[in-house]
Amino acid sequence: MTTFTRALRRRSARRIAAMGVVAAGALLLAACGDNGHDMSGMDHGSGRSSATATAEAGDFNDADVTFAQMMLPHHQQAVEMARLADGRASDTEIKDLAGTIEKAQDPEITTMTGWLNSWGKPAAAGSMAGMDMGGDGMMSDKDMKELKAMKGTEFDKMFAQMMIDHHNGAIDMARTEQKSGRNTDAQTMADGIVKGQSAEVKQLQGILDRL
Prior knowledge:
This protein has seven helices and no strands. It is an all-alpha fold. The protein has one domain (3-23, 58-210): Ferritin, core subunit, four-helix bundle (Ferritin, Up-down Bundle). Helix 3 (62-84) runs antiparallel to helix 4 (92-119), helix 4 (92-119) packs antiparallel against helix 7 (184-210) and helix 6 packs antiparallel against helix 7. The protein is elongated.
């Protein structure tokens, strides 16, 4: 059994246990109610001016807040994973895709931070803050350490599998926002995540199949 296979098996076991915790936390946040707010915001989207973002802030509800609070650390970890490819990845397509992921998600981190600030909400999702969660595609600290220790084809394979899991978690959260959110900018970002990351999952699976 290779190091890659053992790592995936350990990570899958941890994720099954952690998913229940994530689900409970999301339900608790959603149960707080559907209270709309009419507040001006900061920068709400990549490439938009602050003035435009403020004008488009609009109403938001608890689903929008939960989406931003959970997607923010999710994006931060994806960017961290993408940056690991430099000096470790050997596959050209993995290197190119890692650059694409970082370029797409780094500006969205700034955007979501701006939303939460303008809404008067913390960046961390209450009691879920600081927890080493394995749900919603999030990698544990141990997963990240194992990825950092790998190079070449072994890194490429683990990166592809981990990013597939990571993207699928983001897609699930974005679909929840599509159904339950109110804020126009948040829903627009959710639409982009579903479309863009679904395409990247297919690309990553193709890479994994040929490695």
